[in-house]
Amino acid sequence: MSAGNIVELSEPGRVVIAVERCMRKRIAPRRSGWSTCAHLGRDLERDFGVRVPEAALERALMTLVRRHRVGMKTDERGVLWFRVRD
Fold first, then answer.
1. In angstroms, rounded to a whole number, what is the distance separating the alpha carbons of residues 35 and 80?
2. I need a labelling partner for 51 at 20 to 30 A (CA). Which of 2, 21, 40, 75 fits?
């Protein structure tokens, strides 16, 4: 874990950018690209070495939904799934 990565995520708007970047990395052959908040939290922890609170992830995802950068759906259990728009 580097201090630079922690500083990056603490800057305003950086979590939104990091979440979108993680979502783009999830699009691959034979993968749907759909992610839950938990999936993205693990991706951010792996990429930045720091845990991002679930509330911060949810705010970032909803910001991306409002900006029409991310689609959102609910499965039969009520779990929210997100996918970056092409």
1. 8
2. 75
* All residues at 6 or more sequence positions from 34 whose CB lies less than 8 Å from its CB, including other chains: 26, 73, 81, 82, 83
What residues have CB less than 8 Å from 20, skipping those under 6 apart?
64, 69, 70, 84
Within 10 angstroms of residue 9's Cβ, the number of other Cβ atoms is 17
Which residues, in sequence order, are CB contacts of 86 under 8 Å at separation 6+?
none
Residue 38, token pair as written in the block: 């938990």
Give pLDDT tens digits for 21-75: 889 988 888 888 899 999 999 998 988 888 888 898 999 999 999 999 999 999 9
β-partners of residue 74 are 80
